[in-house]
Amino acid sequence: MASFADLVSVAKAAGGYTADIDPTWTVGSKVHGGALLAVLASAARTAYLDDGGEPDAAPVVISAEYLGAPDPGHIELRTDVRKRGRTTSFVTVEAVQGDRVYVQAAVTLARRDAGEERYAEPLPVDAMPPTPPADALAWDPEHPAAKIFKVGRVAEVRYDASTLPVIEGRTGPAETRGWVRLREEPLSGLFALLATDISLPVVANLGGIGWAPTITLTASVRREPVDGWLRFRASAPVVGQRWFEEDHVLVDESGHVVATSRQLAMVPAPRPPES
Known about the structure:
By secondary structure, the chain is mainly beta. About 10% of the residues lie in helices and about 35% in strands.
């Protein structure tokens, strides 16, 4: 069975590192965008450590440009430690398959936050219970969506069904809420990175069902999560005819905001009318 530890395990190679991505970490036939974030961040931290970096530094920000969607399998990770500083360090990573660069990313490494926040405004996600209620919708391996969203074989994902009117053939706000955790492994900052892209595209609730390719995604992991469930809210404040920006906020069971992200993606192409 695939594991998250295996996903983010990288091996030293000429020009950087390599990784082997199991088909479990796919949506349809292509590697899940959040899984790619975790792999890229892992390669960046490994390169930083191999360059003599401080062991308590971790990826706190990653900004990725998706030039294409790679297949699962072997992937090259070309790294360059651009800065190794006392407060922040900076590593660039390219994900290469064959002779094509599929993703290029910039990763900032530093010490993550700890303790209580100095200031925090109320967020919609605060109203959610720390763990999913009994009536939460489970996207488990038996769910029909598992044929497409295979990540659910390793990660438990449960939705607040009231934020998925699309499953009943209705439309509603461009928002989803839910909970996610690994089935058999502890949470980590790298998994929180993956989870900043865990929701199905929120434009599905507007009738935009289909592939919504991510163009660019910036995610931050401000603190290491406590083990347990991460609750998330994904939303798109504005949806255009072609583009939308989707935001994720993730809170751990201790009530702290662990990670956030914003991505620019394309609205799925309209389906042709049935004849």
